[in-house]
Amino acid sequence: MRGIILAGGSGTRLYPITRAVSKQLLPIYDKPLIYYPLSVLMLAGIREVLIISTPRDLSFYQELLGDGSHLGMRFEYAEQAKPRGLAEAFTIGCDFIAGEPCALVLGDNMFHGQDLSRVLWRARESVENEGGAVVFGYPVRDPRAFGVVEFGDGGRVLSIEEKPEHPKSSYAVPGLYFYDGKVSDIASQVEPSDRGELEITSVNNAYLADGQLSVQLMGRGMAWLDTGTPEGMLKAAEYVEAVQSRQGYYVACIEEVAFRRGFIGADELRSLGEEMSKTDYGRYLISIADEAERA
């Protein structure tokens, strides 16, 4: 399975701080925002990732993340000249996907929770073994501000409505999607919406029409964090700081995830930590390598 992070857009809701820098490069506590969706793909065992961003910002992502080899991964990069909709990620990334199953995560979405890895692997195995698509449902107090999923027995999706006045459930659809190898072909047939965008809802509805769209619920103990406003970014940073200071482990530490998933070994992890040894982040990586060598 391959993964795509869509990190484009102009970030106008965060002006003026995003006038000169991509939102997904801004810090959430001690690491760039893009580390959080990247760690989600890594937790799903995905080692090949395409990062899509604007022509202005793409070089900064390349400088930050490189080719991925230091993490035992492979990163590729592609431009989205204008924000023409989420579904365009699959036409931009058509050659990269190459007919393989694919996960798409939005570059400003943060997920955390004890069961996250299990949820991700279940979605991956579903599309790899059975085909179709998997979206997620996250309970929110006021679903009218989101895409809302209505589902029946066995997680079968009945409908997805965008910002409905009368929601049919309390479950919003977050920016994380798993698809089989047909997704690029389906996306290429999507027509622009009234907003002039290629909507991800159109892709989901195509799978729904074929009876191949299912939903997995993210329930109690899972966090889906909004970073679309300054207040949201602050609250997300406070959440990460609280988890890390109270529990002693780091959230979305991509080097640690690479090590835990077997992408790199203890020596590689130690080397990455030594490059940042003046920071708590670097010392944390070294401590994990030390612990592994003592085990």
From TrEMBL:
NCBIfam families, per the entry: rmlA
Name of this chain's protein: Glucose-1-phosphate thymidylyltransferase
Entry-linked Gene3D superfamilies: Spore Coat Polysaccharide Biosynthesis Protein SpsA, Chain A
Enzyme Commission designation: 2.7.7.24
Catalytic activity: dTTP + alpha-D-glucose 1-phosphate + H(+) = dTDP-alpha-D-glucose + diphosphate
Function: Catalyzes the formation of dTDP-glucose, from dTTP and glucose 1-phosphate, as well as its pyrophosphorolysis.
Keyword ATP-binding recorded: no
Keyword annotations of the record: Magnesium, Metal-binding, Nucleotidyltransferase, Transferase
CDD domains associated with the record: G1P_TT_short (cd02538)
Homology family: Belongs to the glucose-1-phosphate thymidylyltransferase family.
Biological processes, Gene Ontology terms: hexose metabolic process; polysaccharide biosynthetic process
Cofactor(s), names only, from the UniProt record: Mg(2+)
Taxonomy, superkingdom: Bacteria
Organism phylogeny: Bacteria, Bacillati, Actinomycetota, Coriobacteriia, Coriobacteriales
